[in-house]
């Protein structure tokens, strides 16, 4: 691992500054936001190489002892729930299903934090074989990434010819009752022409589709504000085939804005992280696979919980460190600022 390619953790022992922080248990930041939604990356490895995320050769591999174990993940989930008021946990990566012990991670987390909603973001490969076990272990629902239903196009975007495996994964999730199954599609110039076909396919399968504006989190650093596809352009393309009516957000911190399709009840969502930023309502806190807290996808400052956990810290000490890390969360991602610089880590290394 190099610092440049994998991020900039705080040095062990270096603490966030909390002198002006009110003494409240929750994950409050300086702008009054409270994080209640935890994203945990369980690995940086992946079975695909999506061009908007991973480099063709994959990310530099981490040694197994660098990555949090199932028991360590469950401990941090328990701390987040009991001490910090987190009420939703999503497992992500890299690809969470690449971890052989993913069912154990879910089962231990469910036992450690009863009542917390557990979900997963996955590319779906291998989900047909594991969906039932994951549901039994306590997983409530899944978001599955699928950018196109055209096989050649899928292979070009992901650098792997695995569309049939993803479709089998979607069927597996539906059969296991991991509902609602949501499909995430990153909006790219190359996917725009097939966007209406993808929506038609999702309507037919009874799964909810959300498009995501592409963010500058690709390892190849190809993203450009001037060439990305904005939500408005997608709406124009979908509007040629479907009758769309705006219904807005289900709650202020929900990233997706929703539209009914052809009078409903089916809907389509758009997560316009770039052109209609929702940073002021963000309620996320993130843990990387190595156990560092990131207050934002776009912040390179990371606070190392793994080090304190492994030297035997109690829950209160871990929670305090986590609170400090979130207190320093910045107001927004700053993508529209003149001097914007993308974070060192790409999406697959942070956990999307
Ligand atoms: N491998 C899993 C998957 O693809 O669903 C989980 C990890 S992936 C990093 C999480 C989500 O981030 C996916 O929905 C993916 O499409 C999205 N994503 C990856 N790179 C992105 C980017 N540059 N901009 C916006 N979304 C991105
Ligand atoms: Fe892998 Fe998900 Fe990144 Fe695609 S978006 S390369 S599936 S981690």
Automatic annotation (TrEMBL):
Keywords: 4Fe-4S, GTP-binding, Iron, Iron-sulfur, Lyase, Metal-binding, Molybdenum cofactor biosynthesis, Nucleotide-binding, S-adenosyl-L-methionine. It is an enzyme of class 4 (lyase). It catalyses: GTP + AH2 + S-adenosyl-L-methionine = (8S)-3',8-cyclo-7,8-dihydroguanosine 5'-triphosphate + 5'-deoxyadenosine + L-methionine + A + H(+). Its EC number is 4.1.99.22. GTP binds at residues 39, 90, 121, 182, 284-286. S-adenosyl-L-methionine binds at residues 52, 94, 145, 215. Binds 2 [4Fe-4S] clusters. Binds 1 [4Fe-4S] cluster coordinated with 3 cysteines and an exchangeable S-adenosyl-L-methionine and 1 [4Fe-4S] cluster coordinated with 3 cysteines and the GTP-derived substrate. Its cofactor is [4Fe-4S] cluster. SUPFAM superfamilies: Radical SAM enzymes. Pathway: Cofactor biosynthesis; molybdopterin biosynthesis. CDD domains: Radical_SAM, Twitch_MoaA. Monomer and homodimer. Catalyzes the cyclization of GTP to (8S)-3',8-cyclo-7,8-dihydroguanosine 5'-triphosphate. This is GTP 3',8-cyclase. It comes from Rhodococcoides kroppenstedtii.
């Amino acid at each position: 691992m190099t610092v440049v390619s994998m991020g900039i953790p705080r040095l062990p022992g270096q603490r966030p500054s909390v002198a002006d922080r009110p003494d409240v248990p929750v994950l409050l930041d300086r702008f009054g936001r409270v994080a209640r939604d935890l994203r945990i990356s369980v690995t940086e490895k992946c079975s695909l190489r999506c061009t908007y995320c991973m480099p063709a050769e994959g990310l530099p591999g981490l040694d197994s002892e660098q990555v949090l174990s199932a028991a360590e993940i469950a401990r941090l989930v328990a701390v987040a729930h009991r001490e910090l008021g987190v009420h939703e946990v999503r497992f992500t990566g890299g690809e969470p299903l690449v971890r052989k012990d993913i069912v154990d991670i879910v089962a231990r987390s469910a036992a450690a934090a009863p009542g917390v909603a557990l979900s997963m973001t996955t590319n779906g490969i291998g989900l047909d074989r594991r969906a039932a076990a994951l549901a039994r272990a306590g997983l409530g629902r899944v978001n599955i990434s699928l950018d196109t239903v055209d096989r050649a196009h899928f292979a070009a975007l992901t650098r792997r010819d695995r569309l049939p495996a993803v479709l089998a994964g979607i069927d597996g999730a539906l059969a296991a009752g991991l509902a609602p199954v949501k499909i995430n599609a990153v909006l790219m110039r190359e996917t725009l022409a097939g966007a209406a076909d993808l929506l038609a396919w999702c309507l037919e399968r009874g799964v909810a589709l959300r498009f995501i504006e592409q963010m500058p989190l690709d390892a190849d650093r190809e993203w450009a504000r001037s060439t990305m596809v904005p939500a408005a352009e997608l709406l124009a393309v979908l509007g040629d085939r479907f009758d769309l009516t705006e219904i807005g957000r289900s709650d202020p911190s929900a990233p997706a804005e929703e539209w009914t399709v052809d009078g409903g009840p089916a809907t389509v969502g758009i997560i316009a992280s770039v052109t209609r930023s929702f940073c002021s309502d963000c309620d996320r806190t993130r843990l990387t696979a190595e156990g560092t807290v990131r207050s934002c996808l776009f912040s390179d400052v990371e606070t190392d919980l793994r080090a304190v956990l492994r030297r035997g810290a109690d829950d209160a000490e871990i929670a305090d460190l986590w609170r400090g890390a979130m207190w320093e969360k910045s107001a927004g991602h700053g993508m529209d600022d003149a001097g914007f610089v993308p974070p060192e880590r790409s999406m697959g290394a942070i956990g999307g």
